[in-house]
Amino acid sequence: MAATSGASTPPYPSAARIADSPCYPQYTASLKCLEEFRSDKSKCQEHFDVYKECKKKEREARLERNRNRSFFS
Question: Domain of life here (predicted)?
Answer without folding.
Answer: Eukaryota
